[in-house]
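Sample intake sheet
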Amino acid sequence: MGEWVIILGCSTGHGGATTRKLAENGYGIIGFHFDRGDVKREAEAFCKELKGITSDRCHFFNTNAASVDVMDDYIPKIKEITGGDAVKLLLHSIAFGTTTNFFGEKPVTQRQMEMTVHVMGTSLLYWVQKLYDAKLLGNGSRILGLTSEGNYLCMEGYGPVSVAKVALESITRQIGWELGQYGITANCIQAGVTPTRALTKISENWREWVEKTKRRNPMRRTTQPEDVANVVYLMLQPEADFINCSIVYTDGGEHRSGMIL
């Protein structure tokens, strides 16, 4: 049987596209999402579809994957699913946080900032620590986080998420630096502006962002979730064993163009 992957944020966007890509290429899926209503039903239908593709080797859990208590509850279940074997991948694709400015009518609060930084940043560290302690990471395992250009550029309402992404990058580098000796690598993928459900939550001007990105990007289009999924798949190949503590740009060269948003 094929290797297993854990995807945090498996139902939509980059995580959803990656889940499909890896399922179609023989990986067993352990996915976490936190959805309600119609989106929850869509996720359940997605999981059912993938069970058919993977010969029932797909498990979705609808719960808050950023909760340390959830990690403690589910890691034994993950170990049971994999038969104690180390997972090939932990992908952090959780996109949930506060999008507001530091100042103005609704300045970010301490609670909002701490929640955003934890959910989109530091929660990755605690997943890796617990998986490592449970011997669910080993030689050839990959840790991947998703970052963005907002980690070094200022954008309206993006401040809290920017802080989270900077934390995520720093954590990923340090994980790779400490665990590289065991053949465990950690990197971030930096996608360009992508028209996903998460983008619509960042700014009411997201349509304008998309149109400006098409003009700005050297390839004259936005990043698509499938672009990220393809790079994640490439990063799982043996040829990527020596890529560590790095940012892999997956944006068609967008980050090299002037900021016009």
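Comment: The mean pLDDT is 93. The longest helix spans residues 110-133.
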